[in-house]
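User: Structure please.
Assistant: Input sequence and predicted structure:
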Amino acid sequence: MELQSQLSDERLRETIQRLIRENYDLGELTRVEEILGGYCNKSYAVWMSADDQNRRYFLRLYNPNVVENEILFEHELLNHLKSNGFTLAAAIVPCRKGTTVVHTPPPENHRGRRALWALFEFLEGEDKYSWTCTTLTDNEFTNAAEILAHLHHCGHGFKKPPGADRVQPRIMDFIPTFKSTYSVFLERADDRRCDRLFKDEFTTICKTIDYGASFDIMFKGMKELPIHGDYHPGNLKYRDEKGVGIFDFDWSKTDYRLFDVALGLIYFTSIWDDQTSGLRQDKFTLFLNTYNKACRLFTHIYPLTKQERSYMVPMLSIANLYVLNWALVDFYNTPRPDDDESYSFLNHNIGLMHWIVLQEKELELWVNNS
């Protein structure tokens, strides 16, 4: 059977064919398509034919900067969630020898000395949104909050495998590193739109970092569990106003539960049509109220505690800094960044940084009414 492929790179096609043939017993590879839209890794849909049936899988080529121990942490967590009844994440397909990561020579334009791959079951459903498109229906908002609560519940009992972990530190160890990173960026800043915005806001950003870091002691004792770390509308698949799949666990780690919830609120309820307008009150309270209600249905998670509710607003500021950091690092570490696109991200999160400070008392009321 002739392989159908949309890949123009013949060497890449041959690499994928050899990878599947030498490591899996899933039948014959009949079709390969690249899945566009990811920022960090490369993804492919692959179709396998066995017993007169075609089945689609998801093949991931990890970013060359990713450390293998991070991938093993992600895979162990996915297996753990599945064992605890979480069925919305794509299951990992183990290799013939039982491992979950495949090593190959690097394809063309892959900067690493070797390539790391993993194969997953394919998540069905519709890719309706992105991290900047948050126009979900109320039913979708509600379901997304319920999924996050279920995910947190199913993380109970997780123990990371020896040597496997996220390289990125926990959030309260990570935040203090931003200032030194940004000082280097400031020295490199030129006269692009993003450079001018960054230089104008540098002092305020550093003050906001200090503000967030000052809560380290106050956060002690809050619930810690495996978090998704990138929970936004674009990482869910939908059908009939329900989330039917969740993916991109690349940023998962063990950290404060409140950080994952706050990050979800920043992502899901941000207003993007007016980049300085902040968060939507109705969606914020709907999401948070639903999350708390859903937690009451599970045995290994509970609604936000008094301590967590008291410190939600500073955690929102920290979560926004986390997203802003991603945008700054991406801009200054990309050889030829898209200045206009990057400006929209930076301007949004810098505007939100100011908005959270101005709306602190109002946000406290939103939290207390949820």
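The CA atoms of residues 225 and 235 lie 20 Å apart.
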